[in-house]
Amino acid sequence: MRYYTGRMNTVTTLHVASDNSERTEHIAETIGQRLRGGEVIELVSDLGGGKTTFTRGLARGAGSKDVVGSPTFTISKVYEARTFEIHHFDFYRLSEAGIVADEIAEYLNDPSVVTVVEWGDIVHHVLPVERLTITITQTPAGIRELTFAAPETYQYLLEDVR
Questions:
Q1: Section 76-101 average pLDDT
Q2: To pair with 4 at 20 to 30 A between CA atoms, which of 27, 78, 152, 154?
């Protein structure tokens, strides 16, 4: 793990490789098991990079039995978990946030909601600085490299990730 100082506190950066979708889901499931409610997770990658695959594992780890799919055309989906809901947003098709920024902002301080955001550039002004950011990059060899950037307040989510 590497440490660097962010604007508000120390951020831990962890790098993990995944050679298939099942491994990516397993990594996410490990994090999902530690979710408490109220967390904000930003997923960053290219189109087809594994963001929805990651969310599928995250929801399963949180105890959701819901079918997880990409919300690209619906903008958002909600999954029922143990003691909270997972609100999954995908802003790929939007050129500006508009009213959706207001919608996401109302969930950010709700301890009964975990917010997962894909293609979040247009709502960065709404997202809290304190969030888990997961960047997924694809190598030429087909390996997904997952980079987790977690502030101190979210480091408990990464304790079992390897």
A1: 82
A2: 27
